Amino acid sequence: MMFFIVPLVAVASPLLAFDMSQSTRCVAIPNQMKVCKDVGYSEMRLPNFLGHSNLGEVVLRSEDWKDLLQTGCHPQAQVFLCSIIAPICLDTFIQPCRSLCVAVRDSCAPVLDCQGHPWPEAFDCDRFPAEEDMCLTPHGKFNYFLKDLPKPVCQNCPSVETSPPMKTVLSAFCHYDFAVTAKLHRLRHSTGEPEFKVEGRVEFIRQGPLLPYDTQHLLREWLLINLQCASSLVRPGRSQLYVLTGSVKPNGAVALTHLFPWHKKDSGIALATRRWKHHRC
């Protein structure tokens, strides 16, 4: 499991309405509870730290967090969430440390805000124990990687230009840090919930600071974070090839700047991609 357990010095105060003196039981984490199925342990304690004692209710409520976890907003978001809704079954109660809550909140609250949701009151970090109590602490190595890896951010919808002239496309290649071609696909769900993926390979026109092995995943995270914008780019059940340009800030934040839908008739985009290798900005 990707966390540390700090030894107990003081008894932690109860979280929300959960009473640590009440009797609990251990149950297997069910297969349908996908957000916690591979968290690193196989049994959970009921009632959980939100006071849910019915396994069906826990599974249902866990689905509310699937979309946030898919954005990759923090590498320990799953550990934090599952330690509350599906706490590990040990001889003592183990809550997330306040420091773990703060780390996840600082990365994931902006994503929730981008989608129109506040950080839940139930996850107020002041409710969790400090690190001198027995609790789950953040894993230090993740903080190092977070500083270096490019990460998508919540942003206003970038400019979308259909059938641009070659000069416009070349200018975008010159003025921004990277340019790629990617086919964006929006799945059609009977529930109406949007789900996106990047089909096939991402082709680099200008790589810049992007990582070849991570860019496809990064673009999917951008779509999931910026759901409202993404929903306007691709219709349900359809795919669309785009040329995308963007910038990467010193802190690793990735923002898309221009999107050019690439249709067969778009000679300007085709000419720009062919001439880019020999183009001088």
UniProtKB/TrEMBL annotation:
One cellular-component annotation, GO: extracellular space
GO biological process: canonical Wnt signaling pathway; cell differentiation; determination of dorsal identity; developmental pigmentation; negative regulation of BMP signaling pathway; non-canonical Wnt signaling pathway; protein stabilization
Ranges for domain NTR: 154-281
Entry keyword annotation includes Disulfide bond: yes
Gene3D superfamilies given in the database record: Frizzled cysteine-rich domain
Compartment(s) of residence: Secreted
Signal peptide feature range: 1-17
UniProt GO MF annotations: Wnt-protein binding
Domain FZ: residue ranges: 21-138
Any matching Pfam family: Fz
Record keywords, A-Z: Developmental protein, Differentiation, Disulfide bond, Secreted, Signal, Wnt signaling pathway
Disulfide bonds: C36-C82, C101-C125
Family the entry assigns: Belongs to the secreted frizzled-related protein (sFRP) family.
Record protein name field: Secreted frizzled-related protein 5-like
Protein source organism: Nothobranchius furzeri (Turquoise killifish)
Organism ancestry: Eukaryota, Metazoa, Chordata, Craniata, Vertebrata
